[in-house]
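Q: I have 237 residues here and want to know how they pack in 3D. Can you give me a structure?
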Amino acid sequence: MTEPLLAIAGLRGGYGAVEVLRGVDLRVDAGEIVALLGSNGAGKSTLINMVCGLIAKSAGQVSFAGRDISRARSAGIVAAGLIQVPEGRRIFPNLTVRENLELGAYLRGRAQQAQNLDRVMSIFPRLSERTRQLAGTLSGGEQQMLALGRALMSEPRLLILDEPSLGLSPLLVEEMFAMIGELHRQGLSILLVEQNVPLSLDIAQRAYVLENGEIRFTGLPAELLASPELKRAYLGI
């Protein structure tokens, strides 16, 4: 069996005395798009922030591209090519669109910055029209494009998307998911963390359901959608 690109085993931890994750196992293979689903408070953001070195773990192992990154600093994890687009975008509102994008190449991708910038502009033409505009003046959809474009400037080997549809109109949500699907078709490995179950399962190859800090389901999207009990119990649909 081929070694996973990302392998999480027995991950536990939380905030102080509050344990949020209770022994989570998860994997993402190279070239795969995997959906991590669950309601608010299930522990999804905590999980990916632990993987990215932003929150301390109390137990468990995280491996990326065959290397143990369980105790690695976040900067080293980014430099290895594990890139997160955080919930809420977290762009720099007082910098221009171009400056935000160039910051994406600060730790990784600097040698190909010009080529990567051209690629991002071709993927998001609206950003190419606003390179000198302050990022804080963009619409919500444009800010999400900027956050995703900034991540692409880092030449990710694995892209983690945390609630990319949050706060977007239904039309922009569909547009964003179409872009994510296209990036995957171009060969990008993606871990998609979302509450929009139908669209996530439509583009994912495998899915996990996280509830109360534990994985309750792992398998094919079709298996999850075929089970009324699973949908009702864990997804609320």
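Q: Anything worth noting?
A: The radius of gyration is 17 Å. The chain has a mean pLDDT of 91.
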